[in-house]
């Protein structure tokens, strides 16, 4: 049984990572003018709206805690998901996908979207390959894209050259890969807690 202390600590780590990634990746998007915030809502570091970082941090914590729970429900062994080196490679690929969405120039958005979709599926295949990972990734992509469309529709911010209901068509790919990445981090943290509990039980 996972203690409340472990869950809070794990959630705090995930929240911090989510905030960090959101600041760095959103800075990249804003610099390339992929996303544009109205001047009146810019109120924090890295030229981002103040609510972006805590929202992404909260989402990262929820996703990272949810993945191990779903693994357990489906009978998948979270202790065999990989090591920290694999998690770090997954993070690097995720950052690369975001970098590609902002900096690589394609002939049109369809080519970019197809390329990012292939990269996102490749990320899942290389570092996850689980039913829970794919299912949650798709669910996160759909839900996050819908929320983003609502925000853009209400003029909270906007995308340059939108081609899919107020947003960019490649956005679900970024959300999918982000969900898989945070899920793998959450799994590794859960595996670390499980190992610590087993060692403690042996000592007792």
From TrEMBL:
It is found in: Endoplasmic reticulum membrane. The keyword Endoplasmic reticulum applies. Its main location: endoplasmic reticulum. Keywords: Cholesterol metabolism, Endoplasmic reticulum, Lipid metabolism, Membrane, Steroid metabolism, Sterol metabolism, Transmembrane, Transmembrane helix. GO terms for cellular component: SREBP-SCAP-Insig complex. The lineage of its organism: Eukaryota, Metazoa, Spiralia, Lophotrochozoa, Mollusca. GO terms for biological process: cellular response to insulin stimulus; cholesterol biosynthetic process; SREBP signaling pathway; SREBP-SCAP complex retention in endoplasmic reticulum. Pfam families: INSIG. It comes from Littorina saxatilis. This is Insulin-induced gene protein. The chain crosses the membrane at residues 7-28, 48-70, 106-127, 134-153, 165-185. InterPro entries: INSIG_fam.
């Amino acid at each position: 049984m996972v203690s409340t202390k472990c869950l809070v600590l794990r959630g705090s780590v995930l929240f911090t990572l989510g905030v960090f990634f959101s600041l760095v990746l959103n800075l990249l998007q804003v610099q390339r003018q992929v996303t544009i915030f109205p001047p009146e809502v810019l109120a924090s570091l890295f030229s981002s709206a103040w609510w972006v970082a805590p929202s992404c941090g909260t989402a990262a914590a929820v996703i990272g805690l949810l993945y191990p729970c779903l693994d357990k429900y489906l009978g998948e062994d979270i202790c065999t998901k990989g090591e920290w080196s694999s998690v770090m490679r997954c993070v690097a690929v995720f950052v690369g996908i975001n970098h590609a969405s902002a900096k690589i120039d394609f002939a049109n958005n369809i080519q970019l979207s197809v390329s990012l979709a292939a990269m996102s599926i490749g990320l899942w295949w290389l570092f996850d390959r689980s039913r829970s990972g794919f299912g949650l990734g798709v669910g996160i992509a759909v839900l996050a894209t819908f929320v983003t469309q609502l925000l853009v529709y209400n003029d909270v911010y906007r995308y340059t050259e939108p081609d899919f209901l107020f947003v960019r068509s490649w956005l679900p790919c970024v959300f999918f890969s982000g969900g898989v990445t945070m899920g793998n981090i959450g799994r590794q943290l859960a595996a670390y807690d499980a190992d610590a509990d087993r060692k403690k039980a042996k000592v007792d």
